[in-house]
Amino acid sequence: MKIGPLNIPLREDFSLKSILNFEKTPVNMLVAVSVVAMLAMLVIGVSLYLMHGHHAYNVTREHPWGLLIAVYIFFVVSSTGFCIVGSLGDVFGFKDFTMISKRAIFGSIVTILAGFTVIAFEIGHPVTMMIYNVLSPGLTSAIWWMGTLYGLYLTFMIIEFYFLLNNDMKKAKIFGLTGLLVGLAAHSNLGSVFGFLNARTISQGVFYPTYFILTAFITGIFLSFIIMGFRYKLNFNEKTKKLLEGLAKIQGLLISILIFFVTWKLLTDMYGGMPNRAEVAEHILGSGSFWTEVILAMVLPLLIILKDFGKSPVLMFWASLSGMVGIFFMRYNLVHDTQLKPLQMMKVREYQLPPEWIHYFPSATEIMISLGGLGLCVLLYYVGTKAFNLDEEEGH
Amino acid sequence: MARYGMALDYKNCINCKACEVACKEENGVLMGADKHRIWVGVNEISGEYPLLDIVSHSFQPSQCQHCDEAPCQMVCPTNATYYDEFHVVRVDSDKCILCSYCMNACPYDARYVDDRTMTVDKCTFCSDTRLARGETTTACQNTCPTKVRTFGDLDDPESEISELLRTREHFSLKANLGTKPKLFYLT
Ligand code: SF4
Ligand code: SF4
Prior knowledge:
heterodimer, A: Formate dehydrogenase/DMSO reductase fold, B: alpha+beta, Alpha-Beta Plaits, four-stranded mixed sheet, two-stranded antiparallel sheet, binds iron/sulfur cluster
């Protein structure tokens, strides 16, 4: 398809009919029905939000960031992860990984679009944001940097994808590298949104800006297994097996580092019983959602990798699904745990505020918009697989 | 230009909450427990019988500290939170995008969402009500029966507040965070 000077190579059979035309296996039908249901939830959720504003959410004065922030983080981490995995082949020239580059870069675009969709309904005034982000930029604000850099990153990813589609590897590499660097900067800035909260000692510090990069890479690998699993219906050819084995080995290393990081983070949090920090860390250790994160995103996948050093791609596919659920909990925990401890040292009993821990559970609207974001992401990705050839071109 | 601050002789507070009411009335703050710019905190008697620490029991009126190094201002992506010419920390509701970052960054839980504008609101030292009318006191100060509060110019050596801070021992809240609050608690 030609748009002005741009040449976008769409698949020849791409049409509305081709989108609706998929193999009607039970799994596919289940995915299709879920996606439609999730999109319906998005519509309902957004309508409720438009009618009631933030009252439709369970966010409060003491817990102003809720599920939607966690889901936004979940999506943008996924995007950065896809971008890192995509860059392995096409920017850094690891030949075994080139076959996933185009698909991963496309994944990074759809996940960040889903993230932006979700955050648009969390930020009270997204249009004002676009205006005043430019007119009166808050240069000391991590949110300003994160948002601005992510906007740039999306642009670079789209340009890179365009050149990948057109097999212009040289230009794809230039934009890929720039996009990757901007993406990593954006992503560590997202970590610093939490790291800069001096009043919240549990999150304050260098930990999150660096940990975000590590967990992005891990997320990217989980997602690679998932999209390749769907692409080959778990029937991997030799070349794909090689790719996935390589990714699994890297994943083993990364998860081990992550476990190491998290262990030391919690130990330093508790050491010496620093007020506001130690008790929060102990509270986290006693919470089910923390252990869900640990088991689903760290222990299970690591055990499966260690079983035969990443030689079971099918098992890894399942472990990656579990991993992504774990990663969701990881994001949710980050947001919630940051706000667990009430700040008001003076207001011990004022208005009968909860004296110990701030409680929060997402409202139906928040849950619907979040699932809607997931539905949108899957739909966009699916349409992409129909519109573009996301496989590696022969002869490259 | 003046640099406004407030000194609180907090041990005189009797927890009548007249200041909370006056603030809501003067500044049109919406009803509802979590919609408040100022509050009176209660420090309860600590310890266990018979070792009760009776002097630990006190009332502590508080509000936005109008930090000189305000975390809420630093984190604001659109500079909606700014220092006005009197060093009062204010929110420009036209620029506020309700990202809620400031609510999380403020160590004093001094911010809340105003449902009318759907933007963040907080104590303004009555800047756009009483001070704009040319008065020199805030509503909370004016109404306080035991005269806990003294509002004034910290840069004017002759002001009552400067005199108080020169002659009375005082502390600020969470001073370790380096926020340089302009609310001072007289001991
Ligand atoms: S007390 Fe909170 S709202 Fe007030 S200036 Fe300081 S950080 Fe900002
Ligand atoms: S909620 Fe408004 S005032 Fe607060 S940081 Fe965001 S834009 Fe600034």
